[in-house]
Structure formats: structure tokens, C-alpha cells
Amino acid sequence: MASSPPADSVSRLMGFFRTLGILKRPPSIADRQDFFSDVIRSLLSVDLVQPGHIICTLTVNPSVANPYNTLHGGVVASMAEMMTLACAKTVAGNKEFFLGEMSTSYLSAARIDDKVEVEASILRQGRRVIVTQVHFRIKKTQKLFYTSRTTVYIMPVASL
Length: 160
Description:
Keywords: Hydrolase. Residues 68-143 form the Thioesterase domain. By secondary structure, this protein is of the alpha+beta class. It has a single domain, classed as Thiol Ester Dehydrase, Chain A (Roll), CATH 3.10.129.10. It contains 3 helices and 6 strands, in the order ααββαββββ. The protein has helices at 7-20, 35-42, 73-92, and strands at 44-50, 53-59, 97-106, 115-125, 129-138, 144-154. Strands 1-2-4-5-6-3 form a 6-stranded antiparallel β-sheet. Strand 4 and strand 5 (129-138) form a beta hairpin. The radius of gyration is 19 Å and the shape is globular.
């Protein structure tokens, strides 16, 4: 039979959750469909689009920062997914595809007001799979902060 954790451990954990904002209810506007994607898209400006290669600039602002005033990890993952799918679209044309796997390394942190260069490129393209990488660098120094590798699977064409 498992024993209950000490009360001071539970109290510290609840304090940590409060610091992160986990116990707060998001504002009602966040209930709108695709709200988060709209927020992410509003922070991006497109610098370059070529087949298999996209570069955008992301300006970190308080709406996407965590309690430590750095870019929220969930935003990094969402941005990597968005850039991957856009990059795959530049080479897949009309084919339908879906995100199969994604691995993200959080090497450092981007702070509020940092301008981040987000670069997506195709590492491998086959008949049924596209592998991409997405690098997040501080624009001014080119220091790599986050990197993501993603596998996109191309849907087979139905033969009727």
C-alpha cells in the first residue's frame, strides 16, 4: 500500500504549479477554434520560401513566454510542426501527408524581444516519407537555441 506524500511536498508542488500558471483558467477568447495557431502565425514573418527550404523570423513577445520570460517550449514545438508541414508542402504538391514523428532539443532559451530565425529544410524526400529539420537561431548572433527533426508520411493514393 502506497503512503501519502508529506504535506510540505504537496504544498511545494502546488506552489510550483501556481508559478507556472497551471491552476489558472485561460481567458475565454482562448476557447475559439484555432486560437493558438493564429497566435503563432501572427508572430512570424516570412523571409524566404524555396522548394524544400523556408526561413521565417519570430519575435518573442510576452504572449508566448513562460513564467521565466523565455519562449515557451510548447510554442517551439508548435512552430517546428508548422514550419515542417509548410516545408513539406513545398515539395509534396497536392499529396496529402501527416506528421508522424517529431523530436525537439531545447539547447538554450530565447528571451522576450529576441528575434529568432526559424529555418526549415528537407533532409530526405522519398516516395512515402519526408524528413525535415527545423533550426531556431537568435538572428543577431546565429546561436542555435532549439532544433527539431520531423518525419512526415505521405498518404498513399487510393486506386479505384
